[in-house]
Amino acid sequence: MLCHQLKRFKCADLLVTNHEAQHFPSCLSFDRVLCDVPCSGDGTLRKAPDMWVKWNHREAHGLHKLQMAIGRRGFDLLKPGGTMVYATCSFNPLENEAVVNSLLNAYGSIIELVDVSDKLKGFKRRDGLNTWSVKDTSPEQTWYTSFEQVPEHRRRSVVESMFPPAESAPTSSLLKRCVRVVPHDQDTGGFFVAVLRKAGEAPVVERVPTEGGARAPRQRPDTRNRRGYSNLLSSDPLARLNEVNPTLAKEIREFYGFEPEWVMNGVYSKSSEKQSKRLSFIPEKGQKVLDEFVYAPDLKQQLRVLSAGVRGFEKCPRDGAECSYRIAFDTLHILLPVLTRRVIYVKKETLCGLLQVSQSLLFDKVDDEETRKEIERISVGAVVFRKESSDDCLIMWRGKVSLTPLMPKDEVEFLCFKYDLPNPAKTQRGGSDGVPEDAKQRIDAKDEEDAGRAEEAPE
After folding, report:
1. Which residues are tagged catalytic?
2. Most CB within 10 Å of its CB: which of 143, 230, 347, 458?
3. What domains does the chain contain, in order, with CATH numbers?
4. pLDDT digits (tens, 9 = 90+) for 44-78
5. Minimal CA–CA distance to 279: which of 303, 304, 302, 256?
6. The pTM is what?
7. Does 36 appear as a known binding residue?
């Protein structure tokens, strides 16, 4: 689900990994970390009414140590000056303020609980708690106000970190900087948020034991020593196209006129077959992470990557094409500056006319004569129609006698909205006018970019 949702952003500098959060490898450090930890979820009582029946205070006891371990791991991975957000959808202070208090105590002077009240103008929030009681999970269900009240034989289940700080402790007043959101204040769910900033290098912190004991070392797949392969969680490995199928790589490079080496170095095949249906594009930064950390000698440094980069090229088998792979729209904004072939520059009126094509368009139906000649001159295959002095583009398949659109519906909708055109697909996505909800926000930025290019363009 995460990979599917992130595809909408068309962000090539993106790697999705699959690890237990408390054991995330030490190979990288980050400017930002979000600890959206597992929680009892009682803040979702409104949308999940069955929670009223299922809820049990024992859940918080079972999750407390895991939440602390994830919080500490996240903070360890922060760069100095970086920010971590610890968040739950729970009301229970054992899952919220108790965890934050343990982090403040563990990291001392290098951790800061940030006051974000000035950044939430108009947002109804409540301060964090600095006092609470802890209920035992034993049949007696005793309430304790301090750890000293807990009998010796119960201290493995009811641990000291579950309790609030002493009133005189420095962290007591700081906990009020946490943010609590309750449903009836502004018709929302229930949430807890704490923003933590790292001021320096972290000391070595004793790890919190979690359930399950020691982990068995992960076995490396058979492709360990095969050059160019990475450890994606897939039945097929990920490999550089240059290495597994140099013939196809050369075909794509020459067909689209990609001169810089970095273009084809970033094209990966997610299949052991030489003719993969989809080729991914991973920029240089992502490649370095894959090369260095997917097969690091130290198991603690190894990354298990679930998804990397964006769709680069997709197989589109048609008769008579020199190259059967079409460039994917997801990566077009990256490759457009180095695309020296298969590009036809068109006027606004011509682009608008092509946007209205829902099925196919015969060459002789193209209104602009100059564009029609360019279409007839170019060979069979994918072609990019780019508006002059703009990055607005349309990808189509140039067949033997006609053009066929190869665009995502939401992008067609956006361009139609921008140029005040009816949507040829007549799909209702987002608002009542059939346009994505974010289209109006994207329009202003696009128009400013295009106006700037038009002013810079030579007359």
Report:
1. 89
2. 230
3. 1-14+235-341 (no CATH), 37-198 (3.40.50.150), 343-426 (2.40.240)
4. 988 888 888 888 999 999 999 999 999 999 999 99
5. 256
6. 0.76
7. yes
